[in-house]
Amino acid sequence: MTQVPEPQPTDSSATPTRSADAVVVRGVDKTFDTRSGQVQALTAIGLTVSAGEFVSLIGPSGCGKSTLMRLIADLDQPTAGSVTVFGKTASRARLDQDYGIAFQQAGLLPWRTVAANVGLPLELHGATSRDRNARIEELLDMVGLSDFADRYPDQLSGGMQQRVAIARSLAEKPDLLLMDEPFGALDEMTRERMQTELLRICAETGAAVVFVTHSIPEAVYLSDRVVVMSPRPGRIQQIVPMALTRDPEHAEALREDRAFFDGVTAVREALHTGSPVPTGARGVENR
Amino acid sequence: MTQVPEPQPTDSSATPTRSADAVVVRGVDKTFDTRSGQVQALTAIGLTVSAGEFVSLIGPSGCGKSTLMRLIADLDQPTAGSVTVFGKTASRARLDQDYGIAFQQAGLLPWRTVAANVGLPLELHGATSRDRNARIEELLDMVGLSDFADRYPDQLSGGMQQRVAIARSLAEKPDLLLMDEPFGALDEMTRERMQTELLRICAETGAAVVFVTHSIPEAVYLSDRVVVMSPRPGRIQQIVPMALTRDPEHAEALREDRAFFDGVTAVREALHTGSPVPTGARGVENR
Amino acid sequence: SGGPSDTGSGSNENAGDSLTEVKLQLQWLPQGQFAGYFAALDQGYFEDEGLDVEIIPSGGDIVPQDALANGDVDYAIAWVPKVLGSIEAGANVTNIAQIFQRSGTLQVSWADSGIESVADFEGKKIGSWGFGNEWEIFAAMAAEGLDSSKVEIITQDFNMNAFLQGDIDAAQAMTYNEYAQLLETPNPETGELYTAEDFNVISYEDTVGAMLQDAIWADTEKLESDEQYQETTVSFLKAVLKGWVYAADNPEEASQITLDAGSGWGPSHELWMVNETNKLIWPAENGIGFIDEAAFDKTVAGALSAVNEAGAALITEEPPAGVWTNDYIQQALDALEEEGVDTKGQDFTPIDVTLEEGGN
Amino acid sequence: MVLTLPGKSRSAARTETTLRIIAPIAVGILVLVGWQFLVSVIGVSDYLLPSPAAIVEEFIEFFPSMVSATLITGWNALLGLIIGSILGILLAAIAAGWRPIDHMSAPVVASLAVIPIVALAPVLNSMFGADSQFGRQAIAGLASFVPVFINTLRGFRQTLPVHRDLMKVYAASSAQIVRTVTLPTAVPFVFTGIRIASSLAVISALVAEYFGGPRGGLGGLISTSAASSAYARAWAYVVASIVLGLVFFLATLALERLATRGRRRS
Amino acid sequence: MTAENLAPAIRRRRSAPARELVRWGYGVLGILVIAAVWELYKFLGPADGVVIGEARVLPRTTDLAMPHTWDMVTRLFDPVSRSATANPLWLEVALAALVTLGIAAVGWLVGVVVGFGLALIMQRWKLAEWGILPWVILSQTVPLIAFAPIVRSWGSRVEIGAFEWQDWMSVAVIASYLAFFPIAIGALRGLQSPDAIHTELMHTYGVGWWKTLLKLRIPASVPYLLPALRLGAANAVVGVVVAEVSTGMQGGIGRILIQYAGQASGDPAKAWGPIFGSIVLGLAAAGSVAILGAILKNYRRVEINA
Ligand SMILES: Nc1ncnc2c1ncn2[C@@H]1O[C@H](COP(=O)(O)OP(=O)(O)OP(=O)(O)O)[C@@H](O)[C@H]1O
Ligand SMILES: Nc1ncnc2c1ncn2[C@@H]1O[C@H](COP(=O)(O)OP(=O)(O)OP(=O)(O)O)[C@@H](O)[C@H]1O
Ligand SMILES: [Mg+2]
Ligand SMILES: [Mg+2]
Predict the structure, then answer these.
(1) What CATH superfamily classification does E89-300 receive?
(2) Compositional bias of type Polar residues: which residue ranges (chains A, B) (predicted)?
């Protein structure tokens, strides 16, 4: 993780755009028209992710984390405000394949082998079969699934499927990775292993990451900065910079570090600001 | 939580059976016959859960947590060894409705209202409709869903559904609650709230709980003792007694307590004993 | 044993109190083809004979002789060749009255088609309804050395469209029904109805293939052993014959009766049908219903010679003796003679029927 | 309550496989024996209910005609199945792409699904000519069309949102999307539709023969045999038609399995 | 995960009328388009159709083969025949349709009982499922028309006390033969649909097969059962019409179907009356199951693609 630049403790939503920034979100609102009226999913979102930076989005269900990520990926358009990726419009960045993406469900095509799934984006963009095979081999090696190249997704465990999806998202060497709860479906131990691996991969590739998660320890462990969001309508509650010194040799020890627990506490408190911590009192659930 | 007896730091698998103990598991093996051969799911399991005690089972996927719980619930029979529940055979205890059970999915019947779902066990066991209604009211009040009695499960959020399932498992005032990852599908914030509520309910009813989870903080926060299991074949790796002083007034503060983090660290270390902590090394996943 | 009703007054005793239940199975839907039976019912002839008759229509797949053989009904109307096949398959039934003295089957082709005899069928598409109605064709063809390998047999459906549109070169048609359908259809070129001049008509009655058609069949075993049934048979035949006499004398009324009985045809078509049916019955040389041995043997010979497209013959050996009997029809005829009923119809004259478009 | 455990031992698995084969055969033999018993011992009239032995006899005696009749009817059914399936898939593709077509086709498809084949047979014979097999093929085609259309349309709607998003992320062209995601997703549904259609195609082609057209198919021979009370022969033709239906069903089932291989948990 | 759960329910309630209207509009448009295509082809197409090789791939356009759509419609309002007492065609068709509908309902009920019974047996004993299911599937390859006379003949022997077998009962039996199949399959799938979590829950409650059936399996089968019942209803109508034709039963729509088909040479439009009648009939039968669906709507909260 030595290549990763130091996290920037300033609230970067106010800093001017530089083309070196991976993502710049400025004054974004997003409203959905539904049959039962309008849903204000995001309000006045401002956020800058520097190149190579690891930023997590955390917040209660429905606060707009996925929506924000989809705006960056150009899978949806903001109602107001602008999103730029490496200085281009989100749409241009998508067409240029400037980012790789992974979702909560691995989203593999069940009728394709592991190798064919990983090679899908390359195939769609017309890479020669030779280049493709070389790259697939490299990627599967990176996620430790070389032996499973010819398997079908349903023959893999959830963790392995997720690793295939991550390999796929890295296929075109993007400088930005978008990940929406990629480890949500895994058990805690596999998850920890995947987290460590993700950090290693990021260190190797130097990609910036926007990472959506529900898990505070995960966000703390992985991120340079944690963006805490609050719902109704989705706003950025607070951006918590992490001060963990990462060292691949001792990545695991970190999880029992004092600084780690402090980070967890800081994020917890940020999360509970606004929505008071329940103390066993009965409350109608937020829906 | 004051009624909860103090955790017993001795390895209770060796202690003699007393009928006051909620669960006594002695020398249990469980082997499954599968198409691809035999699977040794559990070996030499010994465990005693005292009345009113909260015991969590934690361990990597496939280590046999669910299997052990299913043996206690008499949903499966051990290959060797014995399981007694309140001094009776597991089967007798099941027929006597000595325990309530909740799974990872709420498992509500979608065509029944919340009230009818909660009342299902009472209805099946021939309670009069008057008794039933009184009990349903009480239970829904306990889980804070009185206003939702006439809703259908699909009109509730995941957290609310899980609360209904817990109310259902409490319907017949069991002295033992079996819960298999009941909060696995919830987001972290809802989950924390549910944990707090579960502790309150346990304190109110004085029931013993066997709780399966993947989350270390959850196990630490909830339990009197955490049983750490290891796979292949499923064994009890270590039983970690928790030394948190619980106080309903400050239930939330606990999560940021030093003792809490120490508990987390202790369980993490117990978990990683035997299966070395991965440090980014590639390993074929356990399936 | 003699007939139960030597005199008209004898039968009247039965009327009113205890009628004998009798079921009669037709071989198709209610229509003018069966005018005599419906007339007998309508005019109370059955009741006069002490019978409570239920007439059961048929449709696609009901085989009347099987219904009879199975004991579902007491009597059945069916073509002789079809029943011969059933008898060889094990049906135990007897022809007790040959109502139609002549075959009413035609093969119709266009006037300019050059198909003027069965020999001309070679290489042509020949229509037939199947369901056992095809044996006259096969028998007539066999006499000309033709079989299904030399002509193409096409199943006709319930109307003549296949022929009108040229899918079939020569269509099977009954004088009393399908032929009339042709004459009820407007010629798209002239807008007028087609006329007889537009068609060549081959009548199987004029060929070796001619076979006996509508006959009344009874249960052989019961005929032999059941006296009550024997008596009922004679009474039944008496009433039926009177019905047919009524139809011959009053074709308009008879056609109205079948219309009321549920025939779906229009009045003009119905009247045509009754009239043409009468022509197949009257005049009856030996009295209506009397079985002509020569005609029966000819039918058997045809049935033995005919082979269908599956290579199956209708029958492979002569039918057993007792497949027909004139015992009962003779008794009925005698009794009617005594009552002064003309059962031969020597001076029968058909009426002229004008067909309307669509048979309406 | 029967608690079936998901896992089974190897020996249990083997027993299951054997039982799965033996059980239906046993039921079949039981019925046949009972049938033969009814006829030959109890003496239900052999005339109406021929014994299995008599049917087998007829089957052997008329074997060449069985084969040719089966081929005629089978060909009609096959052609109808293929044409109906192709039309069903094409129209479903259009309906999936354009909702108004979906709505507009709804009443027609619903009508086709409930219309008795006998009602259409005479009309189709008039329209397409009674001298060709086309009327029957059209009927088999119409009967096949409905399930294929309905299933294919459903299949086209099954594309997972995550796959759709993925394609958008890759900036894939519509042709690429159809090729890589939409079609493969729909394929199992298409084949399920075809499997359902296969039995319908055979039955319809056969029943249509009762209502005119060239002779020689199974339907015509069943009716001819029954009309001359040759019931054993009629049953023999029925057996042939069952065999034909079974061949169609198994062939399409195999196709379906082939199309869905390797994606149990998709 | 939360708001979406609520959305479908709201969606259905809120905009149902408007969407229904649009649907109906398009439906009517669809029928009009078919009619227009019919007339257009009739106008443009060659009288003898389009023949490629041996096969006529497009139909003839003569009035005999393709009557004008308006002739088909106006014919409905003309009397059936010239007979003084003749009803208009539509009335005749409607009366016949009612008879058929009644028999179909009986056949459907029998099919429901048999199909559901079979499904219960198959659910209860795995061995029964293995033994019976292949035959249930095979039964659909048997041409039922071959059985019509046999059923009628067998039926005519049934006479128990005052009860006497009627012809329409044979027809109903044949209808039930067609109706039972989708019901048996759908009910079996439905009865087997509860998740392990639900069956195990019942097990922990220590209740037996019957109570599990009553409280869990039957309610859970409703979403599978309803489409099966709908299919069964449509099949029952088809079965009745076929059986009416085949057994020659009077009074129903099958009977007038062949009768009017026999008159189609001289009166081509008339034959379409019963065809339209049988379509309406099938739709009505299938539609009336929708009423059942509305009554059982709480059991279909999880909708299933069956
Ligand atoms: N396509 C859509 N149409 C309508 N409303 C939507 C849509 N997508 C999201 N929403 C609404 O926008 C809000 C934010 O949704 P979003 O999925 O971004 O939340 P999230 O933070 O990702 O939640 P979770 O943690 O459950 O994934 C929610 O209220 C949701 O219902
Ligand atoms: N019914 C069964 N048949 C065969 N093998 C089984 C069965 N149930 C469990 N197993 C096997 O027994 C082992 C333990 O399974 P179990 O479900 O108890 O694990 P677990 O600890 O609950 O895992 P998870 O955390 O994924 O729920 C696994 O290897 C599993 O494959
Ligand atoms: Mg989300
Ligand atoms: Mg488990």
Answers:
(1) MetI-like (1.10.3720.10)
(2) 1-18
